[in-house]
Amino acid sequence: MALRNVVDYHAGETRLGLTSRLAMANGFPSMRDFVAITGTSPHAINVGEPAAVAMLSQWSEFDAPLLSSWAIGTLERGATWRLGSALMSRDMRPGYTHRYCPKCVVGDLANGTGPTHLRPFMRVWWTTRAILNCPEHGCPIKEAKTDVHHAGDFALFIAKHLPQIEAEARDARMSPSFEVDKYVAARLQDIPASTFLDSLETYVAVDLCRNLGRFQQANSIGGELPAVALTDIERGYAIASQGPSRIETVVADVIGLRKPSAGEFQSVFGSLREWLLRNYKREEFEGVVKLFQDFAERYLPIGLAETFVLPTSRRFLHSVRSASFEYNMMEDRVYNLVVQAGLVEPSELTSGRIYFDADRGHEVLTAALETLTTSEIATIFGTDIDTVRSMLDANLMPRVEAFGNSRVYSRVRKQDVDAFLERLTVDIARDNELARLDDLANACRVARCKKYEIFELALNGELPSLRRSPESGLLCCYLVDPTELRAGIEAKRRRTAKEKRHDKTSTLFAGNQLLYWTEVSRRLRASGITGLTLLKLGFLQGVDAVCPRTWLRKKYVTLKSLEKFERTHVSLWSLAAQRGISPRKLRRELDAKGIRPIFDQTVTASRPSLFYRRKDVRDFLQ
């Protein structure tokens, strides 16, 4: 039956709070004294046992279904408990404390009806530590310790501590942010607030926000910190409430900033990963665990042998270090391969911090494994390693790896070697051709070239005489016409020299402005050794240059110095021809007058032609 004195019921009021006010309204010293004579218990009323709720309904004259809201139930041996439809963790239990918002209490006193000491009522959301701030006022929830005999007797607590609570209300300050508290209050009232977080159990959503906030805080740099100092849980809520895509962005940004190696990601994820590891076997954590496992697999270089929370299902990324182990390659070789393939930019990071796409990297690294060394190629060709290296330097076959900043790994894909041999396929020499053909070694001596140059001409279609030996199909046993080879080599070198003359950074090639000393002798109509003698004695200016025909470095005479010499000197033979006498007779006349040539023929055993200064023989010139 109804009690003599009843009180108003407020939406969101706890059953124990209502019972406490009823006990005080009817003159009982405490709620426990009142309940002791009813045949029920505070615990039964608190958790919402049907018999206890029915009894409370009779006392208060409120319907039992109304009072049955937010039933409390313990699950999993006390690890979790339910507050209405919201699942809470053990550490969210209020314990033997009175939790309250002082501003709410003062507001009830000012705005409520009935006796003043019965106006404040106990809100359901105060009974879980998932809420740390008042969802209405934003000030921190106060906690006052009590004991088992007075737990839940809120009306008695207010009556004894009202001055203290009024002082707390005056001093209360609003927290910078209390979005999580408003969110949990909405969850308790079954009001949708965040699609993603609403898909999780309440305590999982709250713990996710807290650990996600710690994760971002621990991995933030100064410029990323917000202007308002948020708590970890509020920072995490600002991220998680936007859904999985926003969480992924934060995780990806942190990994991109820190670039942890496979053995360092534990410290980067810190308490977030530890929280997942503690709870991954729980059914309510399945979605969150799979979410972060997916992020870890797609943004960290972890493989099937490594575990983030669950066993890795697929490798998405490799680091240079992990690829080195998996493909049995040196780290610097792996690095150079992936840089050359455009999978990563050149980096100063350590090998464990340089990531690249595992699938694309597999193509590059597998291709690098399916290669031949210079020694293996030399065996296939039947030639020496130096010849193979010169062929690679000439790009007759592409290297898989060719780097300028470290050791050159001279490896060639087998398919490129096969393609080279296929392009170089020639006929077997016929009997009537053997007389004019010679082996490559002798032909190289005649043409003054290297073997790779023979293959280069052949691939360009400039060596029709190239044949295979009837006795062997090895590359080293090919035959060629030395005369044709020499002509082809000289033509090729002239083309190259002509191209490089316009390149100021290239080797100097002899051209129209440079003459070899034999050409100087012919131009001066002098004996063969004269040009060299004039060059050695310094009458002509010499420069080192490469012969465009033989590519041998030689001393050449500049055309400018030769023209100057011709203007200021005249040969004995030319002067005698002008006077119509023999050179010998003319020399005796010049000697008789004390006129000497610029050098004496004794300077060399080959007797160069004699020259005089034009100013000395002006009287003898016609």
From TrEMBL:
Pfam family for this entry, one: TniQ
InterPro entries recorded: TniQ (IPR009492)
Residues covered by the TniQ domain: 8-140
Protein name (record): TniQ domain-containing protein
Protein's organism: Sinorhizobium fredii (strain USDA 257)
